[in-house]
C-alpha cells in the first residue's frame, strides 16, 4: 500500500521534526532565543523536577510563586499548579519570559497550551449485560467505584444522577462539590459525589479562541453544552424509566455501571473547546480526589501526533494509571481515513465506535415511486401525508456553498416550499437544516459524499429531514437531473430494534495504524457509539444550536465520545469485581474477550466499505463485558514496562521523566517497542526491503482464572497470504506456584506486501484451555523508513 507507506513515513518525519523543535527544557535552553517583549502573552505548561524544591518553601506552589524561582523578576502569574499526576504549573507569559524559564535547571520541559475538541438505553444490553446476570447480578456491583468524567460538566437534576437507594459515599473519597453560578453544593449527593470546574486556561487563551462566554456558559460545574451530561450518564447513569428523546428510543435508560459514583471535572467550555492546561488540572484533581476510573472523550484536532512527553493528555493519564486509575479515551471521529486514530499512548485505553442493533429509519419517497432508505430523529410536525413536494439541489446551479447549504447561501426563491438536498460537510449537519428552514424550505435531505460512504447517524433536525448514504445520494441527484419536475416526500418510521448486522464499525471512527508508535495497535477496541440515548442539559436543545429552544431530558448522540464512556463504565464494573487488577489487566480482559462477530454470527463489517473490518478499524474487537469478567489470562503492565517502551522509542531520560515523574535510565541496547506486554501484537517491517523479513515478539500472560492449575494451547489464524506466524512454546502450564508464563511469537513476511492493500496483513493468536478463549490480534505492516 504505497499511499499508506508514504503517509506513515511523512507522519513519522513530522513527529521527529516536532520532537527536535519542541524539545525538553535542557535542549530548549541551548537553542531558544528570546522574542520581542511586545509579543502577546501565551499560556505555557512547565514540567518541573519536584525534587529540586528548596526545603525553605513549604509547598511547590510557594516555590513557583517566589522570586527565587522566577529568577529575581516579577512573580509568575500562575494559573494551575499540578502536583499529583504531573509536577509543575501553567502560566500566561510573554514568549521571551517562557524561554528564560525554560533554562531554569529544575524545568524539564515546556510546552505551549493547545486547544482540544470533544469527540462528539439499549447500549448496555448490547455489551452482553443482562439484568440479574453476570456483572449486573450483584446489585451492589460498582457502588464502591468512582468514575471521574473530564468533559463539559453536568446537569445534576437529571434522574440519571439520583442517589435513591445508594449507600454512603466511599470513605476514601477526598473530592469536593465546588459551588458557582447555578450550582449550589446541595446538588451533589451520594451518586454525584463531586464536581469541579477549570477555566483559567481558557481565560488566558482568549486571543486564540479561549475565554468563557458568560452569556452562554456557567462559571461552575453546570453543563451548558450537554456533552458532559451525556457521557457521564452513559458511563454510570442510574435507571430512568420512560426515557426517550421525543419518543425515539423509548424505554429504560441506564449507564453501564448504574451503581457507580460519578465525579465531574469541567475542563471543556461551550463554544471554546478544551485547553491542555485545564485538562491537566482535571487529571491532577481527579486522582487526588480518589477516582478509580477517568473517562476522557477529548482529543487533538490539529492532525499532528506530538511525542508523548509533549502531550498533556498522555502525561496526565500516565500519572493516573501509575497510581492505579484506569483511563479510557476516545479514538476520534476522523475516520475512515487511515492513521486517523487519536490518543495513542499505550497506557490509555483507546475506544472506537460501533453501531448497536437500534436505528431510526426514514424514507425518501421519490415521485417515480422509488424509496430511498435514510435515518432521522426528527420529532416535529411531519410533512403532509400523500403530498409530494418539489425537490431541489442548490448545488446544481448555486456553487459549492449552496450545495453544502452554508449560511446565507440559499436563494429563498429557489427553495421556498421545497425539499432541499444538502451535501454533508463543512458545517454541522443540523445547522444546514436551520439554513434551509430560514430560507423557506419545507424539508431537507442530507446527502453523504463518497468520504462518508453509507455511514449514517440520527439527528434531531429542526425541520422534516433525513440523512441518506452516498449510494442513495447519487440516485437522488440522478433523479433530479433526469426528471422534468422532480418531487419527493419524507416518511419517518420511528424506532426499530433488532437491526442486523450489528455491530458495524462506524465510518467516522478513528482508524489505525498508530501514527506515533506503529508497534502499538490503536484503537484498542470498539464500543457502542452510534445513536446513543443518554441524559441531556436544559441549557440547549437537542441539536446543541443556540437557536434551538426545545427541551429534552435525554438526547441521542453519536461519536467515539459516546463509545469511550461505555468502556469507562465497563472498567468500573470490572474494578468492583476484581479490585486487585491493574488498569492494564482490566484493559487486557476487555481486549482478549472482545467479539469479532456481529449478531448474525458473521465477521464484523466496516460501514465505510461494506466489507469485513480488520484490527486497524476495531482493534481487538467489540467490547463483550460478560466475557471480560472471567478472561482466564491477562497481559499485565507496570511502570518499568512503560519506561522500557519509552526507551525503545529513543526518548532521552529527561524526556521520559517528564512522563513518569521519576528519574529514568535506558539500557545500552535499545529495547524493542514491539515487546511491550500489550494484549495486541503489531509488527513493523521495512517497506523497501525485498525478500522475507522476520521478527520475534515476546509476551507474558498471568493466570487470573478460578483454577490455579490450567493448561492453555495456542492457535494461530492468519488472514491473507505472504505471512506466517508461529508460537513457542505452543502450550502454557500454570500451577499454584506458577501464575505467569512467557512465550515468543515469530512473524515472517514474504515479498514486498501482505494483505489486500499490499502493506498490511493480520491474524489472531488465541490461547485456549477449553473454557477461556484469550485472543490477541496480530497486525503486520510495512512502511518506508526515514
UniProtKB/TrEMBL annotation:
The residue ranges of the Subtilisin-like protease fibronectin type-III domain are 675-780
Query: Which BP terms does GO give this entry?
Result: proteolysis
Q: Does the keyword Hydrolase apply?
A: yes
Which residues does the UniProt record annotate as the domain PA?
Answer: 388-476
Q: Where is the Inhibitor I9 domain?
A: 43-119
Residue intervals of the Peptidase S8/S53 domain: 142-620
N-terminal signal peptide:
1-25
**Keyword annotations:** Hydrolase, Protease, Serine protease, Signal
Q: Please list the residues that make up the active site.
A: 151, 227, 561
GO MF entry, a single one: serine-type endopeptidase activity
Q: Which InterPro entries match?
A: PA_domain (IPR003137), Peptidase_S8/S53_dom (IPR000209), Peptidase_S8/S53_dom_sf (IPR036852), Peptidase_S8_Ser-AS (IPR023828), Peptidase_S8_subtilisin-rel (IPR015500), Peptidases_S8_3 (IPR034197), S8pro/Inhibitor_I9 (IPR010259), S8pro/Inhibitor_I9_sf (IPR037045)
The record, for PROSITE patterns, names: SUBTILASE, SUBTILASE_SER
Database matches in Pfam families? fn3_6 (PF17766), Inhibitor_I9 (PF05922), PA (PF02225), Peptidase_S8 (PF00082)
Residue spans making up a coiled coil are: none
Q: Belongs to which family?
A: Belongs to the peptidase S8 family.
- Kindly provide the name given to this protein in its UniProt entry: Subtilisin-like protease SBT1.6
